[in-house]
Design a protein that fits this description.
Blueprint (H helix, E strand, L loop, with lengths): L18 H26 L7 H22 L6 H23 L5 H21 L5
Amino acid sequence: MQHPESSGNHHPSKPALSADMKACLDACRACTVACLACAKACATEKDAANLQACIRLDQDCASVCTALGDVLARGSAPNAAMLDALLGACIASCGACAKECDTHSKMAHCAACAEACRTCESACQKLKGVPQA
């Protein structure tokens, strides 16, 4: 009989995420999904040529949220400077994307994306320690 720690199935446990890190991770994942859905929907609109800025911001925001989410999901203590930079980038990209999607909020996908971006922006600000209004 093998000792449980010597089996091939043993994985070192990851440190538990703080509540703020978990909230930020969940918000990043939801924002990524909303941004990609919005970009895809904008690209199929009859006025897609005038939605290029929205599509680009959706795609950029999804990429930033994915990067931050990947770092948080590892569950290890990330480098503080890197985490701070990623949180700042996520706050900026979510803010810009939400602002752009707000200008198209008559479209359900843009309204949903703006809401997901604002939720993610807020979660990132909380984790970064930015005072909330």
